[in-house]
Write a structure and sequence with these properties.
alpha/beta; 6-stranded mixed sheet; 16 helices
Length: 450
């Protein structure tokens, strides 16, 4: 451990996916770990270790000081429990803790990727490209399915690629990626952030500790990111679908890498890309530029793109039944991801949407539905309220389903040969499912049973 930075007593707020490997690491190092969670059964994996002590909210005030407090991404820094413990010691995120431990051991490269949408696809694609060169690469973080950041503590790698969320970036102190990638900044998590500015600031934290020798990879087509870039100290490179930039850009079906004073390089073209949609093209540009800046050859980048199948629950083709294609985009939990998925197809789709609202205005969904959807099936908590806001012409081609199974069955009845049934909820899954993975897996099972 890095001595002065990490003290001997630890309080873990939230016992879950992100913090479990960190607790295991600390217990292996014979450190004393206090664990807190609203669900007492979360302590079960650790109760056999005498250095692990499960504590209640009342007991936290009497814990020994100073503490290093590691907060789960799912717990807001403004929550009652976070406010209660903030005077007890340094509160950091899981990715900050992992960074401090990794940095104290060896020379490594760290790439961090964030954005409202596309983080997981970009992270996984970059990992695929680097692994083709047989590099020692860890890929993890917020990516799901995938390894949490804490799993990196048990792996000896040279390059660490972390997908990081705004929740994780809220509580960084020294986290400094060699390459930081910001894909886009759109409205999301309005149930957690009191204002848009606070969410933007959390995303911008990814560049907070970077120096001039580090690299920022940014989306030139996003006006909010261009504003953020004005305060970035690191060496800035761009990706764009619209114009020539210092970095990588797309023009007439092909990508080009261009740096000042250097010859332009042709990279991948349209026919090399298996993933559908403009948003995926942005993700591929970002991953390709990061890989190139890490020294990967043009040939390996192209082969990595060609052989990348995409991730589960993100515009995932499930099967074709009687000429009807089923696509699972359960990961779509905000308006921008919702619009991106609808605009990926050349023809109108039969859409299954709905879930639990995270503070979005329902009006953001109405125009995309009018424009892209030939028949709509609504599910979840939002279905009745969203239905009321739809124009009469759209309501006439809308069905309110009592379950996901009934939604799929109705969509299939309404479909004709060559139609696409798209499951792109646009809202959180927590009204009906454990998470977006559980929701997507349920959709898969129902479709495969047809």
């Amino acid at each position: 451990m890095t001595g002065k930075e990490i003290v001997e007593n630890f309080l873990i707020l939230g016992l879950g996916r992100a913090t479990t490997p960190i607790i295991k690491f600390l217990l292996k190092k014979k450190k004393r770990v206090f664990g807190y969670d609203l669900l007492k059964n979360k302590r079960r994996p650790f109760v056999g270790d005498r250095n692990f002590i499960f504590v209640s909210e009342d007991e936290i005030t009497n814990l020994p000081e100073p503490l290093t407090i590691i907060i789960s991404p799912g717990i807001s820094e403004d929550s009652e429990i976070a406010l209660l413990v903030k005077e007890k010691g340094r509160m950091i995120s899981d990715v900050e803790f992992v960074y401090q431990i990794l940095l104290g051991h060896r020379e490594i490269k760290i790439v961090a990727i964030t954005g409202t949408n596309g983080k997981s696809t970009t992270t996984a694609l970059l990992g695929t490209i680097l692994k083709r060169e047989k590099r020692g690469v860890f890929v993890g973080g917020n990516i799901a399915p995938g390894k949490p950041a804490g799993a990196a503590l048990f792996e000896k790698k040279d390059t660490f690629i972390f997908e990081v969320s705004s929740f994780q970036l809220e509580k960084i102190k020294k986290f400094r990626p060699n390459i930081a990638v910001l894909l886009n900044v759109n409205k999301d998590h309005l149930d957690r952030y009191q204002c848009w500015r606070k969410y933007v600031m959390a995303k911008a934290n990814i560049f907070m500790n970077q120096k001039e020798t580090d690299i920022a990879v940014l989306n030139y087509d996003d006006p909010q990111i261009r504003r953020i870039a004005k305060k970035i100290k690191s060496n800035t490179f761009w990706f764009s679908l619209r114009q020539e930039v210092n970095g990588i850009y797309w023009k007439e079906g092909r990508s080009y890498i261009k740096f000042p004073g250097k010859k332009e390089i042709k990279l991948f073209q349209d026919s090399d890309i298996p993933l559908r949609g403009k948003f995926n093209l942005e993700n591929i540009l970002a991953a390709s530029l990061a890989a190139y800046l890490l020294g990967v050859t043009k040939e390996e980048i192209i082969e990595g793109i060609k052989n990348f199948p995409g991730l589960p629950h993100r515009m995932e083709f499930i099967r074709k039944v009687k000429g009807v294609s089923f696509v699972n985009n359960s990961m779509a939990t905000n308006p921008s991801a919702f619009v991106y998925s609808l605009s990926a197809f050349f023809q109108p789709v039969i859409l299954i949407a709905g879930g639990k609202n995270k503070g979005f205005s329902f009006t953001e969904y109405v125009k995309p539905i009018e424009r892209y959807v030939k028949f709509l099936v609504l599910i979840g908590e939002v279905k009745n309220e969203l239905f009321k806001l739809l124009p009469p012409s759209v309501r006439q081609r809308t069905y309110l389903a009592p379950s996901l199974k009934k939604a799929v069955e109705k969509a299939f009845v309404m479909a004709r040969k060559n139609d696409i049934i798209l499951f792109s909820p646009g809202f959180s899954s927590f009204d009906m499912f454990k998470d977006f993975i559980d929701r997507g897996n349920s959709f898969r099972r129902i479709v495969r049973s047809l």
